[in-house]
Design a protein that fits this description.
Elements: H1 10-20, E1 26-29, E2 34-37, H2 45-60, H3 63-71, E3 77-79, H4 85-91, H5 105-124, H6 137-160, E4 162-164, H7 173-181, E5 186-193, E6 204-211, E7 215-217, H8 218-232, H9 241-244, H10 256-270, H11 273-284, E8 316-320, H12 332-336, E9 346-348, H13 350-357, E10 360-361, E11 364-366, E12 376-379, E13 382-383, E14 394-398, E15 401-402, H14 405-416, H15 420-425, E16 431-434, E17 450-454, H16 455-468, E18 470-473, E19 476-479, H17 481-489, E20 523-527, E21 534-539, H18 544-563, H19 569-580, H20 584-591, H21 596-606
Helix pairs in contact: 1-2, 2-5, 2-6, 5-6, 6-8, 8-10, 10-11, 11-16, 16-17, 16-18, 18-19, 19-20, 20-21
Amino acid sequence: MRTYNKYTSIVGIFLISLLFFSSCKEFLNPEQEINITKDKLYEDWYEYRSMAMGLYGIQTDLVEQLVILGELRGDLMKITDNADADMVEVYNFNISKENKYAQPTNFFRLITATNSFITELKTRRPEVLNPKSPVNNYDRLYGEALCMRAWAYFNAVRIYGKVPFLPESITSIEEVNKFLETPGTYLDTVKIVYGTNGYDNDTLRNVQVELEKQYYDIDLVIDHFTNELENNVKSVGVNHYIENQDQTWEVTIWNNYAYHALLGIMYLTEGDLAKAANNFEFITETNSENYRYQIDNSFANGNWKQIFTNIDIKEHVFTLYFNKGEYQQNRFQEMFEPREPHKYMLKPTRSAILKWETTWDNYRLAVNNTQPWLTRTVWKGLPGDFYRGYGASYTYMQNGVEIPEINVFQSLWLKSEEDYRTSALLVEDADTVIYKYSINKNVFDQDANFIVYRAAGIHLWLAEVYVWWKFEQNGVPREFTSNAVNIINDGSQYNINSNREQLGVRGRVGFGGATDGIRPGNINYTRHPFTNEVTGYIDVSGDFHALQLYLEDQLIDERARELAFEGERFYDLMRVAKRRNDPSFLAKQVSEKFPVERQSEIYNLLLDETNWYINYFD
């Protein structure tokens, strides 16, 4: 049984309780008449494993907060009239410290819990600190805990702009509060356990350590934790397959691939493209396990939505597991669904839906690049990304029932014929619904898994690196923009050495062809979103930087189609805006989801980068 939150042994319960009250020397359960001191714990491998599972339970408590803050502040999600007051604050970038989604408590819980576990491993299993000792399961647990702590800090600093650095001796929320509330330096009482010497066996002393409060911005967080991960981790992830023959266990805990994904996105955020590429390529170009994270037909076409109904090691890199039967649930269905008893508090924006509905399959242009104004559409193709869009990422519901897909296609086709009135009748009065966490779910399930990293997302991050990464080879400058295009469209750069035919992120859902793929060139044609008629062109001839910007725009749109509502959208926009040194990139995209009368207000607010963060620690 895979479980993060519920424990089948009393030992697991004691371990978690001691984790949160580590200043206590013993934990007493009078009903059980069992008295277990902390010093007697961690004597058995399964106690360590139980504690690690407790850490994942804390990590699952963050998923709703990550989606709300990562998506509702972006351009793909908005509130409904049913949204609670805290969601309204997040949506309006007017977030109070009392806002439940702004609270850093769960980040602190995870950081202090990992601090405690890491300290125990270093104290009782000192081989984890020896890079020359053979790798064992304690090393792998140590790697899991270090990754989890680094992930917590990285996500927190993206939200708050700066975070307090909590020394490893701070291992409970009570200590965090005292640490943050104490003016000046903080005096921490540390328990010292001396080794056996025949005279003062297990002698205890309390010594005071003076801790100075420091706040790390995103650069300091990335510098500190990339250095820690690269220098202190020997291996990541215990192999549970040996015992339970279930390969999916590997991707529901931190593992070596997830370790490289975390390093890769930290380096990409920092702007170190070479190191980002090295870590992403470890995942995308692995030549073991049948090239598991390359994009083939495993989730092609109609199978794409199965990414969200099952756990599969060919797509999932790290996924937080939920299961109603084990009392591990989240509130995604409650927040997104309009069917009773759910509250329908959040919905996709019009911009999000248009990302899928204005994607065209297999159209043809009569191209005249020497006289581009003469280029015209000779076959408009078919409208709509129906594999990743309708019925997968979003849906229309009337009275809690989905509108048939054929009706939606007919509506789009009628739009292409400019019959907007009849088109509207087919989806009239329907609720637009975020559906990614409801696929194949009964109304009371509330247990969709949360994917932290998956293959397509890693490939698209790598494509982003390739848009900008330049290096010198034999004195000749080289760029990788062609690799970026191949990753998006058809994966052709992998097919040379791979044993599996690669399809690319768009290609596996049918949009990687000669015309319907993303194919930037000197002349790039704009088309009407509903009729697909050519409306103009963008000429970047002789301006390679403009070509890169155009390609990056297309890539960020592709990330929306592939990864909408998975918690990363606002940080995608932040990263691009910072790279361009142009806050208007983010401000424009986000402000357009607001009513016309508020767009200027929000645009001007977001031109100031300090408003991208929740200034909780000011």
